[in-house]
C-alpha cells in the first residue's frame, strides 16, 4: 500500500525497503529469539518480493531507539554506499522514511512515551508513512504531531484488512491455520520449530513500543541526574 501510495501520490521512487526486527531486549511478552525472527523475515521476503530486504543490525544490538535505527540505515546507505546509482550513472542521495501502522504512531501522541528530541528527529529529519490499521483513527493519532505534518504521509486502506501479528499468534496458540495469512516458507518454519504454540500473554506491537520507549526515557533521566550530580 505504501509503495502504491508513493507511485500515485508523490514524486518518490521506491528503491528498496527494510524489515528491521527488534532486539531481544524489546519489552514485549512472548517475543521470540532474534535468530528466529530474522530467519522468518528473510524467508518472508526472499521468495515473495523483489524490493523488500532484512537488516538484522537492530535485532543483534541492545535495545535501540527508533531514531537510532533510522540513523543506522541512513549511514549505511548514504554514507557508506554513497546513495544509489541511477540508470544514467548519476549518484543520488536516498531519502529514508519510517513505515508504521497507525496504532504505533498513536503512541507518539502519548505523553512521556517518546522524547520530543526523538520525535523531531524521526518526523522532522526523516518523515513517516502511516498505514491505516483497522480500528485506529489516524486523524486523531496525529493531532499532536501537526508541526511535522509536511513529513507525515497518511495511507488509507482501499481494501480493509485487519490481519495483525497479534491475531496470527492467537490463531497459532489455538491450533488454527495461518496458511493463507503468511508466506508459505514462514508457515513451514513456524510449524517445523513449534513456534508460538505457548506464546504467553497477547500484546500488540504498539504496547511493546510504549514499554520500550518509556524504559529508555527512564534511562535518559537517570543519565541526566548522574551528570547533574557530577557537576
UniProtKB/TrEMBL annotation:
Q: For this chain's UniProt record, which GO biological process terms are given?
A: NAD+ biosynthetic process
Low complexity: compositionally biased ranges = 202-211
Q: Where is this region: Disordered?
A: 201-231
GO MF terms, alphabetically ordered: nicotinamide-nucleotide adenylyltransferase activity; nicotinate-nucleotide adenylyltransferase activity
Give start and end of each Cytidyltransferase-like domain.
15-169
Matches recorded under InterPro entries:
Cyt_trans-like, Euk_NMN_adenylyltrnsfrase, Rossmann-like_a/b/a_fold
Please give the superkingdom of this protein's source: Eukaryota
Biased composition (Basic and acidic residues) is annotated at 212-223
Q: Which Pfam families does the entry link to?
A: CTP_transf_like
Q: What is this protein called?
A: Cytidyltransferase-like domain-containing protein
Which species is this record about?
Antrodiella citrinella
Taxonomic placement = Eukaryota, Fungi, Dikarya, Basidiomycota, Agaricomycotina
Amino acid at each position: 500500500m505504501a509503495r502504491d501510495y508513493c507511485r500515485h501520490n508523490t514524486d518518490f521512487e521506491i528503491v528498496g525497503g527494510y524489515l528491521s526486527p527488534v532486539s531481544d531486549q524489546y519489552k514485549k511478552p512472548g517475543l521470540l529469539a532474534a535468530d528466529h525472527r530474522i530467519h522468518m523475515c528473510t524467508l518472508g521476503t526472499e521468495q515473495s518480493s523483489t524490493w523488500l530486504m532484512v537488516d538484522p543490525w537492530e535485532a543483534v544490538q541492545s535495545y535501540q531507539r527508533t531514531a537510532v535505527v533510522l540513523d543506522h540505515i541512513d549511514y549505511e546507505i548514504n554514507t557508506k554506499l554513497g546513495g544509489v546509482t541511477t540508470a544514467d550513472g548519476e549518484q543520488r542521495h536516498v531519502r529514508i522514511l519510517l513505515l508504521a501502522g497507525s496504532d504505533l504512531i498513536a503512541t507518539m501522541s502519548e505523553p512521556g512515551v517518546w522524547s520530543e528530541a526523538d520525535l523531531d528527529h524521526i518526523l522532522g529529519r526523516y518523515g513517516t508513512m502511516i498505514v491505516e490499521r483497522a480500528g485506529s483513527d489516524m486523524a486523531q493519532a496525529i493531532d499532536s504531531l501537526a508541526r511535522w505534518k509536511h513529513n507525515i504521509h497518511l495511507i488509507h486502506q482501499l481494501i480493509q484488512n485487519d490481519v495483525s501479528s497479534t491475531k496470527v499468534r492467537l490463531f497459532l496458540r489455538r491450533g488454527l491455520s495461518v496458511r493463507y495469512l503468511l508466506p508459505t516458507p514462514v508457515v513451514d518454519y513456524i510449524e517445523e520449530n513449534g513456534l508460538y504454540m505457548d506464546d504467553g500473554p497477547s500484546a500488540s506491537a504498539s504496547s511493546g513500543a510504549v514499554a520500550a520507549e518509556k524504559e529508555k526515557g527512564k534511562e535518559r533521566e537517570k543519565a541526566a541526574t548522574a551528570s547533574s550530580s557530577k557537576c
